[in-house]
Amino acid sequence: EGKPIKCKAAIAWEAGKPLSIEEIEVAPPRKGEVRIKVHATGVCHTDAYTLSGKDPEGLFPVVFGHEGGGVVESIGEGVTSVAVGDHVIPLYIPECRECKFCTSGKTNLCSVVRATQGQGLMPDGTTRFSCKDKQIYHYMGCSTFSEYTVVLEISLAKVDPVAPLDKVCLLGCGITTGYGAVTNTAKVEAGSSVVVFGLGGVGLSAIQGAKAVGAKRIIGVDTNPRKYAMATQMGATECINPKDFDKPIQQVLIDMTDGGPDYSFECVGSVDLMRAALECTHKGWGVSTIIGVAPAGAEISTRPFQLVTGRTWKGSAFGGVKGRSELPLLVKRYQDGELDIDSYVTHTFALDEINQAFEAMREGSCIRAVIQM
Ligand code: NAD
Ligand code: DAO
Ligand code: ZN
């Protein structure tokens, strides 16, 4: 029977306030659970969104963080797929391999622990974190802003221990999301034309995916021209700024591409851009994939004629990637030099500087801030 561990964590006591570094107690892993020493974690917009208080499902107090990498410290009863010392990436979409979703062959949205994960709890309805005699909620089943965390076995991708965790941690969210949306969800073919709206970490990864599958034209769209250099480095053949045109951006793109691109990806989270992204695609076969997360309650619209005339609207969560099965392959691609991760790390901080990472994210120059524990 394991013992509780005392360690440092960044706690969000309430919405809209900076995180505070506290000593917390992390209980040992129970049945099907694994305790991990977190080595590095990215900071993503979803953490900032929930911290802001705008997320109607946000719970406090909580340990945020869902883009991490760590090493297994101890395992609970019945855990067989990982062992002490294994290197792992926590997954906010688990892969149980048994539920209706996992066995469908059609989706990565494993739903066995959906209810409790959304309530910030482990499946037995309790939490493994406490601080100052208060129970602290888990976040997205990961809670990587802590030196130690407890995650379900089915929510862990075991990865090559040689891969640097302060880089491959970014496969826990944004990079996999953009890349997978192109390769898994839209299944873009070689020779295609592709438009990517939003050139942050997610959009840049969609560009990398498009380049990897052999797309011949890859157009990046962003209102911030400082994003174009990196987009070009990742494989964009051209970048445009909607502010430079009087015409709606969908018309600009249709004119540029003789009727519209074969594929588009919305990587911003704006319902207006989602509409533009659908409507710019080519009549008869255009496929537009929504990746960006819009504000709670927002709705999309277009004229049904856009679909009647052969355009398809899709969406993608975590790039349609089944984490336990597929993340090791993305790690391999990184190690083989086929997937750039290093360039995304524009900022690094220590855990007690984590509020600076949230500030950096608001600046246009930041792609990803990584916290080194
Ligand atoms: P980011 O903020 O780094 O990038 C967004 C980019 O969009 C920025 O470069 C910004 O300049 C640009 N932009 C803003 N308004 C624009 C406009 N009107 N026109 C063109 N460009 C505009 O964010 P990110 O980390 O790349 O994430 C992008 C989106 O993906 C977010 O909504 C995030 O929540 C979402 N996301 C979705 C999933 C998923 O599984 N579906 C996973 C991770 C992130
Ligand atoms: O199974 O219903 C479900 C929830 C799946 C979670 C999908 C999350 C996609 C957006 C994540 C935002 C970035 C972390
Ligand atoms: Zn499942």
TrEMBL record:
NCBIfam families: adh_III_F_hyde
Annotated protein name in UniProt: S-(hydroxymethyl)glutathione dehydrogenase
EC number: 1.1.1.284
Catalytic activity: S-(hydroxymethyl)glutathione + NAD(+) = S-formylglutathione + NADH + H(+); S-nitrosoglutathione + NADH + H(+) = S-(hydroxysulfenamide)glutathione + NAD(+); a primary alcohol + NAD(+) = an aldehyde + NADH + H(+); S-(hydroxymethyl)glutathione + NADP(+) = S-formylglutathione + NADPH + H(+)
Any single Gene Ontology cellular-component annotation: cytosol
TM regions (residue ranges): none
Record flagged with keyword Oxidoreductase: yes
Similarity-based family: Belongs to the zinc-containing alcohol dehydrogenase family. Class-III subfamily.
Gene Ontology molecular function: alcohol dehydrogenase (NAD+) activity; S-(hydroxymethyl)glutathione dehydrogenase (NAD+) activity; S-(hydroxymethyl)glutathione dehydrogenase (NADP+) activity; S-nitrosoglutathione reductase (NADH) activity; zinc ion binding
Organism (species): Powellomyces hirtus
Gene Ontology terms: biological process: formaldehyde catabolic process
Enzyme class: oxidoreductase
Pfam family, one: ADH_N
Cofactors (names): Zn(2+)
Keyword list, A-Z: Metal-binding, NAD, Oxidoreductase, Zinc
Domain annotation Enoyl reductase (ER): ranges: 16-371
Gene3D superfamilies recorded: Medium-chain alcohol dehydrogenases, catalytic domain, NAD(P)-binding Rossmann-like Domain
